[in-house]
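dumping the sequnces here before i forget
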Amino acid sequence: MKVFKFGGASVNSIERIQNVANILQSFSSEKILIVISAIGKTTNALEKVAEAFFEGEKEKALELFTAIKNEHLETAKQLLQQNVQRANDRLLDIFTEVEWLLHDRPVREFDYYYDQIVCTGELLSTAIISLYLNDQQIANTWIDVRDIFRTDNNFRDANIDWAFTEEQVNEQVLPLFDETNFVITQGFIGATADNESTTLGREGSDYTAAIFANMLDAETQTIWKDVEGVMNADPKLFPAAQLISELNYKEVIEMAYYGAQVIHPKTIKPLQNKDIPLLVKCFLNKDLPGTIIHNSKVNNLPPIIVIKTNQVLLQLNSKDYSFVGEHAVGKLYQLLEAQNMRPNLTQNAAISFVCCVDNKPEKIEKIAAAASDMFDVQLQKDLTLLTVRHYNNGILEELIADKKLLIKQQTIDTVQALVSAM
Ligand SMILES: Nc1ncnc2c1ncn2[C@@H]1O[C@H](COP(=O)(O)OP(=O)(O)O)[C@@H](O)[C@H]1O
Ligand SMILES: N[C@@H](CC(=O)OP(=O)(O)O)C(=O)O
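..and the predicted 3d for all of it:
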């Protein structure tokens, strides 16, 4: 048993969906659980629908949704020959659910509506692709992952009920492989015990695939990307970035934690726990070797550069010259925890504490307001956090030559710099 994950970029055009079918055809004798994300940037577009709806702009929400609807109907029309009517019926069922909701007025919290609307992207993409594969005589079974993945109701960042979900995987998913070699389902989404849709956090499809891989005891998980594999920097920012053919789980979890966009940070744990190798391969050329990520030690890694933009520095200065000791720091971490905010970099001095976080304005405002009881609080925005693992002499200085350095931290294998534009 293998698990494949195709992200939004791999299915963002007719040609790319056809390419997914070609890749799958070359694995036709294998049993594969296939996790697919929403097409292209559909999730971003659905976020806009949710925002308009919640702000009471019903007409705008419906208009934005109609554009998404038409794009998907057009994609189905262009791809399908025999299954056009079936696809239209399936898609219309999914659209109708959202349109009903959009005609209501919001009475619950934003995050709840966000999940009910945004989950549609993956339902639409998988419905179209599954029917297209049938059209191409590639037998497959489509499942609604919301019948399998049970979560709590922490909307937009739901937590998996591991035991219940594993039971569903064994009882409902495993037997499907007796019928067809391919089972197709959605990444990123789940449902509560009350059948309300949930999402697992942006870019969470890698995580969905890793949970399936763990529960199905897969031999490997493959993530199909538009890059050769994991590189030592984002090739969109560093055209000279080089492929790293072998990495271990620890290295990748560190890269993801520091902000590398290539793999979702939660993906590694379920794989590491069962020692399942993760392959990152290029959907543009399936025969390229890609990157293999496993448990064993890997030596001689090149410097790995990770860039996290849109950072905010919270600068907290003691109002009366009291030390910022364990009590004050403990309180500050409680404030961060209450807002589910992770500090990306911190530094403590006698009467001050600085903390760099992702720019989430509402949450930062709440933290700053609560901390202002104890501290003078200042915010600095539009910052970038650079991390270099396995750094060599001079590499950081070269990277930040045209930037203003605010904070630098260095350990034996990692150097980090928080910078602003000059
Ligand atoms: N270290 C890295 N190695 C490879 N790709 C990276 C790295 N860091 C960032 N990326 C970016 O990740 C992109 C692929 O991820 P993404 O667009 O999210 O794919 P998908 O939506 O298909 O999951 C690449 O196009 C590349 O620009
Ligand atoms: N569609 C979701 C989930 C996801 O993982 O997408 P992708 O595989 O395209 O990053 C998102 O955009 O967040």
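Residues 58-79 form the longest helix (22 residues).
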